[in-house]
């Protein structure tokens, strides 16, 4: 059989290389696919994965914009309110808003939120700075609108109190925070504290629902 094939010969077959692939002449007639070249230039492959990635990038940018917008609003409201309190209420009698149940009273707080830990001002300053850095780093992976709002509240509140720690007396990183909201039977606080608490509560609720900052939902 082998001798017959040697004598008669075999039909012409496309030129193949050592790895069994068709040669350049066979490839020239084929349609270019993924990774092929057109006009000597590589053709970039595209597909559903690339389209999804492109749509995720603008979505992530919008969530980051929401985070910093909420943070800026919380920070601005806190800063403006403290400026008014220092100018109008400090060294004056408290102003009753709802009888004895709620009043505005200017107090300098060297401790944490609601007046706790006044002996650890520098530590609380460092913690606030670390929280801000962590939130900014986390923003790169943020694709959830509720998480953007929650982190924005935390960021704005932390920046508000950190500003007091740095720029108010008695000195840098030891400054006392201006508190003025005084409910009856409760500690005096400010708008930055309120933003931090609201952001923290929202994060707890989102965690219970299984919603992650990147927008995925998991169930334990």
Strand residues, percent: 5-15%
Which parts are unreliable, with pLDDT below 50 for 5 consecutive residues or more? 1-46
> How far apart are the first and last residues' alpha carbons, in Å?
69 Å
| Strand adjacency order, main sheet | 3-4-5
- Number of DSSP E strands: 5
Q: Which class do the helix and strand fractions yield?
A: mainly alpha
Q: How helical, in percent, are the residues?
A: 40-55%
Biggest sheet layout: 3 strands, antiparallel
Order of helices and strands: HHEEHEEHHEH
Q: What number is the mean pLDDT? A: 77
Instruction: Output the number of helix runs.
Output: 6
Outline type: globular
Radius of gyration: 32 Å
How would you summarize the topology of this molecule?
Blueprint: H1 2-8, H2 24-28, E1 37-38, E2 41-42, H3 48-88, E3 95-98, E4 102-109, H4 121-138, H5 145-167, E5 177-183, H6 191-209
Antiparallel strand pairs: 1-2, 3-4, 4-5
């Amino acid at each position: 059989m082998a001798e017959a094939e040697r004598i008669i010969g075999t039909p012409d077959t496309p030129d193949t290389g050592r790895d069994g692939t068709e040669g350049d002449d066979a490839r020239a007639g084929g349609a270019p696919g993924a990774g092929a070249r057109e006009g000597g230039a590589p053709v970039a492959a595209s597909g559903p994965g690339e389209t999804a990635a492109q749509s995720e990038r603008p979505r992530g940018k919008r969530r980051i914009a929401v985070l910093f917008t909420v943070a800026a609003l919380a920070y601005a409201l806190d800063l403006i309110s403290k400026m008014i309190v220092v100018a109008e209420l400090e060294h004056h009698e408290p102003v009753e808003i709802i009888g004895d149940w709620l009043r505005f009273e200017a107090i300098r707080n060297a401790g944490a939120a609601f007046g706790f830990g006044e002996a650890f001002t520098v530590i609380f300053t460092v913690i606030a700075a670390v929280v801000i850095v962590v939130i900014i780093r986390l923003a790169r992976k943020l694709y959830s609108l509720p998480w953007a709002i929650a982190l924005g509240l935390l960021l704005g509140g932390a920046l508000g109190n950190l500003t007091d720690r740095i720029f108010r007396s008695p000195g840098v990183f030891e400054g006392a925070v201006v508190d003025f909201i005084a409910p009856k039977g409760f500690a005096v606080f400010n708008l930055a504290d309120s933003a931090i608490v609201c952001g923290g509560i929202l994060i707890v609720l989102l965690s219970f629902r299984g919603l992650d900052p990147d927008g995925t939902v998991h169930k334990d």
